[in-house]
Design goal:
The complex is a heterotrimer of chains A (320), B (311) and C (304). By secondary structure, chain B is mostly helical. Chain B has 13 helices and no strands. Chain B has two domains: 31-73, no CATH class; 89-310, Orthogonal Bundle (MetI-like fold). Chain B has helices at residues 2-29, 34-39, 45-55, 61-73, 87-122, 127-141, 144-158, 171-205, 208-215, 220-257, 263-273, 276-304, 306-310. Chain C is 69% helix and 0% strand. Chain C has helices spanning 30-35, 37-59, 91-127, 129-144, 147-157, 162-189, 192-199, 204-241, 252-261, 268-294, 297-302. In chain C, α3 packs parallel to α6 (162-189). Classes of the chains: A alpha/beta (320), B mainly alpha (311), C mainly alpha (304). Chain A binds chain B through residues 55, 57, 81-82, 84-90, 93-94, 96, 98, 101-107, 115-116, 119-120, 151, 153-154, 164, 167, and chain B through 207-209, 211-220, 222, 227, 230-231, 234, 304-307, 310.
Chain lengths: 320, 311, 304
């Protein structure tokens, strides 16, 4: 398996009164061909920010302070927008959390889908229509002919998310980033969309970066997973490894707080406290204030991401 | 969609009815005998009596109202007291001049206001944007009649580029005569449009769907001019419509300054001459225009916004 | 920071934002207002005009009505800073006196229009139903009248004068204020704290006075400031057309009208009062914007 995308020591943040305030700190990971990697964490831990950094979609006041995002022979963070636009939607695409607001309300589905083909190839209007119909049936949308003429508000949330997936897969991209694609949907629809992503991922041989706060989703779809906390990667490994034996107290806390089928535990455990404020990061381990195992060293010295094997890494002084 | 159009059109009827009623009662119930006002304080009782009869003022008020309503519905606004000309005829003669002025003013407002609004949004928080804001603020605050007067002096008296009065004949001459007055009104509306267009655009560009478009690799120009523009134009249409009432008010003064024989001049002359039927007729026509424009704005709003169009 | 969840505000809804004891008593964020430089400058400009109006009697160099035909159409000089008009009256003195009329009319009109409009809006919003429909339809109808023509017509039948002018222009202010008051009322009516007050047996009047009115007062301030510029322009327009305050009383509109007659001879006659008018209107618009922006975000969120 060759490396397709490599995020290397990325630090992202904003500037307030001339002072740099970090949101992502030294985030590094690789995405291999045909692989699905999950990024897990609470909201505000920087997982969406990581995705937006790769796509070059950070808002104006947020910027990449250091580090690189390497895709094939290109460094994405330094690429001008025009060059980036040749990759976005064609080789790297993204689907978003909110299907309700992620489509332009004023244009038909057909128009918004056709746009992708128009800008990433030389197709005639007829070919574009043909391709649009094909991709819509691939994401299992019934009556694709009618749907092309429909406006976003006429479709349900699940349907819109299917359209989003269709747009993302239109050009058979090498990488697809899915940012909480099922969070805003009903449970039954969630399952359908997940199955669809799994199926298409295999069919298109696309590498998927799956961002979610739902461990169940990770277990179901991903090969490897990355756990983030307060802008840092705190644990990484294959899904089997981590689910089998979480090494970071935070990961283990997450697992205990997730409901599991057939579990004997009646009450779910919760992790006490909240994610620290970006203005006010603890000097030592960022999880220390909430960690049941924290000792003096945890509050004084920040732990490093220790490589335990080819796939495994943990950022903790007291690995479980 | 058709249902919405019909319902919206029918909704204007009560408003029209209400407006006509208000106009009627304002002119009848307010203190002062119209006949006495028209004839002057020194009129003989016989003359007043005669005019009362001629205007139907001797009948009870509800009967007057019904007659008035009936006549109005048939488009009969009576005759001018002085010229004896039919009011409807006078209105029809004056209408095109005001219509042309309004159309040209809106055209000028749009070709100045919308592009500058977009530029201001693209260059948000730059020196250019600030400068534009200051200019539009001043234009917005300067009363139209003052702007009109000075345009008249500079471009018609000092530098005789444009005519100072009249409306001209033939298409091109008419436009030539329209330039100064419509610039006067148009720039005022343009100033409002710039600010509105700009804020509307900035609001759209920060929405979720723009991120989707960018993620698709669509060039930044299209992100602005296709996706954000379409959605930010929707509220702007409403603003143009809302300006219509102000535009007509402005037209009254501008027509006077540039001596254009439009509806405004007609109404103004009638008001000063105390020519009640003409005042009444032109007020009703003005009101009708505003209601119809509001209707058109609403309908075009629904055409632009698929969410309303489809339901 | 990019967050996916919107903060949970449900706990804040329990508190009446206007009577919330934890925030200051006014609902305008004065701290934010003080940071708005344009707003501050315009406030000072307006205070300057108000002072001019209040002290006009003592500070004017000449009586604004005294004619001196020997000195007519003078240019700028040490004696007459802005020159003299057709009748040899001092222009500066007339402009200062004009400030008085403009501000007085603007203040009275806006207060009258806003009070009536807010009363209508609160009743319509609070009662709802048919009454709401009828009142708001009427507001729509008034809105379709071109204010200037309507005022002209009424001033023709009424005797022109200050009172008539104020009443007539204030009619034009009613629909806008009514709409805002209705919107706010509708919004607050269904909030938890109003329901709670109702369930505890508060009378309608009490609910309106203690809960709804305080929330609308801020809007009143903003709307009044913004409408003032409109009133000043309308009054000037009416005076310009010759149906406002009758000459020789010095108003800006009258002065521009007088100046129009001699526009080619001496454009400054119309220009100077026009500039004064424009400055005041700009200042009022900017102050209105600044106030609107400084309105407590609690309140801002409500108005949707």
């Amino acid at each position: 398996m060759g490396v397709l995308l490599e995020v290397k020591n990325i630090s992202v943040g904003t500037r307030r009164n001339g002072e740099f305030i970090g949101i992502l700190e030294n985030v590094s990971f690789k995405l291999n061909k045909g692989e699905t990697v999950g990024i897990v964490g609470e909201s505000g831990c920087g997982k969406s920010m990581t995705a937006l950094t790769i796509m070059g979609l950070l808002s104006k006041n947020i910027f990449v302070e250091s580090g690189t995002v390497n895709y094939e022979d290109k460094e994405l963070t330094k690429l001008p927008t025009t060059e980036l636009n040749r990759l976005r939607g064609k080789e790297i695409s993204m689907i978003f959390q909110e299907p309700m607001t992620s489509l332009n309300p004023s244009f038909t589905i057909g128009n918004q889908l056709a746009e992708v083909y128009k800008h990433h190839g030389n197709f005639s209007a007829k070919e574009i229509r043909q391709k649009s119909l094909e991709i819509l049936s691939k994401v299992k949308i019934s009556d694709p002919e009618d749907k092309l003429k429909a406006y976003p508000h006429q479709l349900s949330g699940g349907m819109r998310q299917r359209v989003m997936i269709a747009m993302a897969l239109a050009c058979s991209p090498k990488i697809m980033i899915a940012d909480e694609p099922t969070t805003a949907l009903d449970v039954t629809v969630q399952a359908q969309i997940l199955d669809l992503i799994n199926e298409l991922q295999a069919g298109f041989n696309t590498s998927v970066l799956f961002i979610t706060h739902d461990l169940g989703v990770v277990a179901e779809t991903c090969h490897r997973m990355i756990v983030m906390y307060a802008g840092q990667i705190i644990e990484e490994g294959t899904v089997a490894e981590i689910f089998d034996h979480p090494s970071h107290p935070y990961t283990s806390g997450l697992m205990l707080s997730a409901p599991r089928l057939g579990s004997a535990i009646k009450r779910l455990k919760t992790i006490k406290g909240v994610v620290p404020d970006i203005d006010n990061m603890p000097t030592g381990c960022r999880f220390a204030p909430r960690c049941p195992y924290a000792t003096d060293i945890c509050f004084e010295k920040a732990p490093f991401l220790e490589k335990m094997s080819e796939t495994r890494g943990v950022r903790c002084w007291h690995k479980l | 969609m058709i249902k919405y159009f019909i319902r919206r059109t029918l909704l204007t009827i009560p408003t029209m009815f209400l407006c006509i009623t208000i106009i009627f009662f304002c002119l009848r119930v307010v203190p002062g005998d119209p006949a006495l006002i028209m004839l002057g304080e020194n009129a003989t009782p016989e003359a007043v009596e005669g005019l009362h009869k001629a205007m139907g003022l001797d009948k009870p008020i509800w009967e007057q109202y019904l007659t008035f309503l009936n006549d109005t519905l048939q488009g009969d606004f009576g005759k001018s007291i002085y010229s004896e000309k039919s009011v409807s005829k006078q209105l029809i003669e004056a209408f095109p001049h005001t219509f042309n002025l309004a159309l040209m003013s809106i055209f000028i407002a749009c070709i100045i206001g919308i592009p500058l609004g977009i530029v201001s949004a693209r260059k948000h928080n730059t020196l250019f944007d600030d400068g534009l804001r200051v200019v539009s603020l001043i234009v917005l605050a300067a009363p139209a009649f003052l702007v009109g007067i000075f345009l008249l002096i500079v471009f018609s008296v000092q530098i005789p580029l444009f005519p100072s009065m009249g409306v001209g004949n033939g298409f091109f001459e008419k436009i030539y005569y329209l330039i100064l007055p419509s610039i006067t009104i148009g720039t005022g509306i343009a100033a409002a449009l710039i600010r509105f267009m700009s804020s509307s655009m900035i609001e759209e560009i920060n929405k979720d769907y723009i991120r989707t478009v960018r993620a698709k690799g669509i060039p930044e120009k299209l992100v602005f001019y296709k996706h954000a523009l379409r959605n930010s134009l929707i509220p702007v249409v409403t603003v143009i419509g809302l300006n219509m009432t102000g535009l007509l008010s402005g037209a009254v003064i501008i027509e006077m300054i540039f001596s254009r024989p439009g509806l405004g001049s007609l109404a103004l002359d009638a008001i000063f001459a105390r020519d009640f039927p003409v005042v009444q007729g032109s007020l009703i026509l003005f009101m009708l225009i505003v209601i119809i424009v509001n209707l058109l704005v609403d309908l075009s709003y629904s055409l632009l916004n698929p969410r309303i169009r489809q339901s | 920071m990019q967050t996916n969840e919107t903060p949970n505000l449900s706990t804040m809804k329990e508190i009446n934002p206007a009577t919330n004891k934890t925030s200051s008593n006014s609902f305008i964020d004065w701290k934010a207002f003080r940071k708005n430089r344009l707003g501050l400058v315009s406030l000072f400009v307006i205070i300057f005009f108000v002072l001019l109006a209040l002290t006009a009697k003592w500070i004017v160099p000449y009586d604004p009505l005294t004619q001196n035909l020997l000195e007519k159409f003078q240019g700028i000089s040490k004696e007459h800073w802005l020159g003299t008009d057709l009748n040899g009256r001092d222009i500066l003195s007339r402009i200062i006196y004009g400030t008085r009329i403009s501000l007085l009319i603007a203040l009275c009109t806006v207060m009258l229009g806003a009070t009536v409009g807010f009363a209508i809006g609160i009743i319509a919003g609070y009662k709802g139903g048919l009454l709401d429909d009828i009142l708001m339809r009427m507001m729509d109808a008034i809105m379709t009248f071109p204010l200037l023509l309507f005022a002209l017509m009424l001033l023709m039948v009424l005797d022109s004068g200050m009172t008539a002018l104020v009443i007539v222009i204030s009619v034009g202010m009613i629909p806008g204020s009514a709409r805002i008051a209705r919107g706010t009322t509708l919004d607050i009516k269904d909030r938890e704290f109003v329901k709670a007050a109702k369930s505890m047996g508060s009378s309608h009047l009490r609910i309106v006075l203690t809960h709804i009115l305080p929330n609308i007062i801020t809007s009143l301030l903003v709307v009044a400031t913004m409408n003032m510029s409109l009133v000043i322009m309308t009054e000037a327009g009416l005076s310009f057309l010759g149906v406002g305050i009758s000459p020789p009383t010095p108003t800006w509109g009258n002065m521009i009208r007088d100046g129009f007659t001699f526009i080619t001879l001496k454009p400054s006659l119309a220009l100077y009062p026009g500039i004064a008018l424009t400055i005041l209107v700009i200042a009022l618009n900017l102050l209105g914007d600044a106030l609107r922006d400084a309105v407590d975000p609690h309140l801002k969120g409500q108005k949707k």
